[in-house]
Every structure is written in C-alpha cells, then in structure tokens.
Task: structure prediction
Amino acid sequence: MKSKLLLFFLLISSVIVNAQPANDNCENAQEITVTTSFQVVAFDLMTATVNNESACSGDSLDDYVDVWYQFVMPTAGKLSINGSVAINGFNIYDSCNGTELICFSTSNLVEGLVEGNNYTLRVRRRTSQNTPNFQEFYIYALEPLANDTCANSENIVVDSSLQTINFNIVEANTNNEIGCEGESLQVYKDIWYNFTMPVNGSLEISSGTSINRFALYDGCNGTQIACFSDSDFYASYIDGLIQGQNYTLRIFRSNLNNPNSQSFTIRAIEPTFPSCQNTESLTVSTTSQTIELDLDNAIYFYEYGCEAVADSYADFWYEFTMPAVSNLYLNMTSYLDAAIYDGCNGNLLDCFNENKVLDDLVSGETYFLRVFRSQSTSPSFGDHFSLRTYNQITNVDCSSAEVLPILTANNTAIYFELAGAQFDTQETCSGNSDYIADAWWQMTMPITGNLFIDTPGGNGIAVYDACNGNELFCNASEGSLDSFKLIDNLIEGNTYLIRFFNTETSLFESEFQTMNLRVYERAENDACANAESIPTITDSAQEISFYTLGSEINEEFGCGTFNLEDYVDVWFEFTMPNLPGNLTITSYIYNYYAVFDACNGNEIYCFQGSDQVEGLIPGETYILRAFQRQNEMFHPYAYFDIWVDGTLDIPMEEINSVSMNFFGKNTLQIQNLNDQASLEIFNIMGQKVISKTLNPSYSQTMEINEPTGIYFAKLYSDIGTATLKMLVRN
Result:
C-alpha cells in the first residue's frame, strides 16, 4: 500500500514539473525574433512559479508569476508592445539579471533601444490577478521617422490647392522641450516639414483638433514666426509670408501616444481685397435702426480686413445716402468690423471695429458700408449692428461759441448732442491730448463770485478767460463724485468761454449731454476780517446756516493733516456765554470747524462733523471757521447747531451708533435702529425727494428709485442724526 502511494505522488510531481513553462525564469528565456511586422506572442502564466518579488525596480514585494523572452532589436527606431489589459505587465532589461530599462503595464512605445543589441523581456502578473484570459501580447519594431528632427524635415509642395498630409507622430521621439516661445519645458513629440511659399500671402492650416500644435519658423533652428494650437472647428492662418521664401513647419503634441488625428490640411492663399456686391439699401436718419445679419447663409472669403489684416471673413454690404448736415454713428458689437467706401469698389474712407462717429461724410453723397465678421467668431455673437445720424452742432470751436442766457443762482440746464460735433485729436487740459469732440459756450458773468457747473461723470469741462485765452479751470476725466465743480473768483461783466468735451468711446452712455450752470455771489463772511456774528449762545441749540458756494477756493491744511487740499470756508465770531458746560457744535460729517482765539490768531481746536470744545473762557470772543473740501461741498447740509451743553458728555460714536451704508446701484442699508426714526433724502439741488418713517430693526434696506445722480440721506432718531452721501445709478 505504501509503495502505491509513493508511486502516485511521484507521478503527480512529475506532471506538475512538466507543466511549468520552459521560460519560467530569466536563464531559460525564450528567444523571439522581432521584426517590423506585427506578431502575436502567446504565453502561459497559469502554471508558472509564484515568486515574492517586485513588479518594477524599487516597488514593494508581492506574489507574482512571470515568463521571460529575449530578442535582438532590429532597427534604430522604437519597440511597440501591447498587452491589451492592465493585468499584463512588462519589464525590459539590458541582459538577464541586468539593468532594468523600462517597466510598464498594458502597452508602451519603448524608445532608446539600440539596433543589434540583445534585450531580455519579462511578462508578469500579480498572482491575485492571474486568469487564463488575455495571455498574449503583440510586438513589433518601428523604423525611425525620417522627419523626426528639424535637420531631417520632410519637404512638401504647398500651393493654392488644399492637400492633406498624413503623419505618424506617435512613432516620433519624446523630447523635454519648449512648445511655443516663452512657454516652460514640457514633454512633447514632434515632426518637421519644410516648404517654399508660392505666393505673397497666408498659409492655411487645419487638423480639426486642438491636440495638434503648430509652429512656423523662417528656417531650421530659425526665428519663430507663429505658434498656435489648432482649432477644433476652424482653420488657422499665418499671414505675411513671402513668395519664394523657404519655411520650416513643426507639428508637436503633448498627448504622446494618441493615434488619432494624425493628419493636417495645408494650402497657400493670396488674400483678396473685398468686392462690393449685392448691396442692401439703407435709409439713415436720426432714429436708430438695428440691422440683422444673415449668418445662416454667410459665405466666407479669405481677404483683407482693417489695416491689411487677412482672415476668413463674411461680408455684408449696404449703401446709403447721407442726409443734410449730420454725423453718422455706427454701433458695432465687439465681434464685427466695418469699413466705409466712397463708392462700390471705391476708395476706403475709414475702417474700424468699435463704436464710431463719422463727421466728414458729405450731405447728399452715396456711401457703401461693408460690415464683416471672422469665421472664427461664434455664430451667436456679432449678428447685428445699429446706426443713426446726429445733426451737426455749430458751436464746435471757441470762435462759434453759443451765447448763454444770463445765469442766476437758479439752475440753467443746457442739453445738447455732442455726437454732432467734430472728432479729432486735440488738447483736453493743458499738456494733455486725446481723440475727442467738444462744444463751446460763451457767458458774461452777471456778478463777482463763483460759477457752478454740474456735468454727468465721464465728461470734461474747461473754462477760459477768452477765446484762445488762459485756461482758468480744466478737468478732463470727471469722477463719479467729482462731477460737480466750482470755478471761483470770476469778475462781474467779464466774458468767459466754457468748453465741454468727451472721448468717442464714452460719449454714448446717455442720449443727450447735460450741463447745469449756476452763479453765486461772493460770500460776505468769506474772510476772517468779515466774520459774521453769531447771536448770543445759550444752553439751547440754535441753527446757523452758512454759504460756501460763493467762497474762494484755497489750497490749505484741514484738521490734523499735513496734506494741502482745496477748501472753501466762511467765518463767524461769537462770545462764550457765562454758562456751565462745553461749547457744542453738531453738523454734517463733511463739514469741518476750527475755533481760534482771534482773527489770524491761535487755533484752539479743529474737528469734523460734531464735537465739543472745552476750556473756553466766559465773556471771551472767539473766531469760528466753517470749511469744506471743495469736492465734498455739494450737499444740502450747510448749517450747524451750536449751544453750551452742561450735561454729561455723550461720546459722538454713541450718538451715531445708528449707521447707514450704500451699496450696489441704488440700495440704502440702515443698521442698529433701536427706535422709530424718520428718513429724508435730498437731491443735489437740496430738494427733498423721499420722506418716510422707519420702524426699529437690526437691519433694513430700501431701493432709491430716483434718476441717476448725487443724493443725501438724513436719518433722525431720538439719539441723534446720521447722514450719508450717495451716488445713485438707475
């Protein structure tokens, strides 16, 4: 019985040993002949010996089964190995038990193998992933690409016919190099071509995918002319190439082993000049009209646009006759270009790709308009434009200035359309110039005092003492809160010139331009020597109004600052009463006050808004200066309350604990309102436009649905008053 069992186990062991693959270890590697032809190599890992080893050099240990092969590299190119699935892994060594050259799973295009050298190939799987499926791999060698380097670039003949060039960039060498000039190093594969340009013109290239990138040089290792990623939808163009010049073309990609889209189309194009055809007649007037473009039936030609820039354009042609004495305004989307000609296929008068005013077209003449768009523009954009005319204005220079009516302290509003002026590059303020239009007015100052000008933000204003005279004031870029200007010290009976100007790009934010003009007499208490007496001060608040609109503008210091700024001020005189307490003044935050011991004397205290002045001596006379920054003076709160407060001091921050904030275009926020309060809102003219009662709340908001402009909010509550200046945009 024992002898039978022993015989049985010997037979089983013999079967197991005989079932192991012959190439189960490196020393018994099976020799395969690798050629440039595709071949399939089957293997058997089901009975291979299990080894506790690494997959790749340096990996952690695991249980693997493997088989071994050896081969001679037949070419100086690459070796393609494909194991189909990720469970198949491969290692290539320079010999049995030699140095590992590469380790990978599934498939790879192996570079750097030397023609004629012998190599050892290991095929492996984790024991846990070993199945009888997919036990084969495909292997073949590739011949080296002839045009893998600039020096070996392939010559192609480029002409006006569209030709397709097929390539196999997957087989190219991998390089760590720069893509386009200025980029950082990256791993790329590239192939090279050279050609001679048959015409003066452009090169059209398309591969239909952005994974292909192109660079054009004026020679091998020459200067880069263009570098770009191809479009998924449209051809790319390189302009300005010279007939007879030889160029080098590089195609490269970072998607290294993607076998798709390995072709491109190429042709040379000599751009044409646009030809007027199939024009649509338009009737232009002062009423704006919008013209839709028929993009569904657009035909694209490679031709010149503005400034001889060539591209694939669709052209839309129109003709119109200019009405009497007017300017033409064209409102183009950012995806459209336009050109004006004096006839069909006539002389080009202007070409542009933005909103444009044409002020030199002749009344009664017929003109031709070309509107064109690039094929690379998405069809959802640039599908219309609008146009209209503006009657030309006559007061386009100081010699033709329009005479204004006599100005008063009440507002005089001037409305006009600056789009009817002449546009050219000229001086704005002294020493500066821009492409602008301007209009002129003449005024005679009815009083000695100040001129107030209110203009919408973005417009420029200048005042001169005569036509071609001295510039008295100029602001070329009015800011949103600085569009109200006071020009001081004008003389009664003198004639002055007012100039209004704007750039073409910001002119059409409103249909009409506006100036609001007022004049103010010199303030009687504009100087310390003429200080106005304040009535007897008591322990009850009395309101004192002041008038700085007629004050001179002085560059001087404010409170606690070392910066010179433009201020206006008025002066008061008061006697400190024999009452217990401190002198108290409450006012708007943009009003400033300073107390002096005498006219031109020592400053005792200076503050902003509201505060108390301590240590004043009963019976003594003091000077009070009320002043404002020139750019903060245009509000309706030109007054202050003054009294002697004998109660305990209340910190001003507690009085003003209720806060107002303005955000967005027209939203006012009120916070920390603990008691019922009343809210009043005034416009820049001091007119009350909103009045309402507010209930207590931690936070509440309201929209101010008033015309665009400067407004002032004043909130009255039991603990004090809060004020806020706002720029409303509706």
Observations:
- Confidence is low (pLDDT under 50) at residues 1-18, 478-482, 648-656.
- The first helix runs from residue 2 to 19.
